[in-house]
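seq as requested:
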Amino acid sequence: MRIIEGSPQEIVEYERLAGVDTEPMPTEDNAASPDKETEPARETAAPDGSASLSPEDHVALMKFIYGRAGKNDMRSFLTERFIMRTLDEEDVVVAFGRSSKTFDGLADYLMIRDDGPQRYGAVAYLRPSNGGLTVRLSPDDLEHLGEKDNPRIQYRNVAPSDPYKINCPLADEDALELALELVRAALDIVRDE
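struct tokens:
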């Protein structure tokens, strides 16, 4: 194993010079709002669990998460754990967001989608840079789940027509468990529509 230190640009340049075929890491956190659906750069499906991820997809996903989460070890760990558990437990697709504002075209978030027909777009957006998870749920959905007054949940001040009304930051293990529950609920809702 070889450890390479440097900025994302320096690592990309090293890999280019060394002939390593990898995708460059994003350097900007200016991305489209998760309220606006964007086309994924690459999708990573794992209907049989994260063990079925190809090595290439797993490495790309980890590079994205650790590159975007910065030096916050807990945020990196929780983001990785959340994505791996989501892939293990649900039939989902994880996709990198796209942005015209970065040199490589990748945004600063991951989209979590149902692995079925893409009628509704993502059920959640996750930003590794701050552990922010925005979920396609309403306050009424939270009331049905018994989580309406959970202090880990933040209500977004968005237009009534915006389906992404809930935030659940991945701040600790309890928030991670709640986030998994919320994503499961959002998946159930879009699957039933």
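Confidence is low (pLDDT under 50) at residues 21-33, 35-51.
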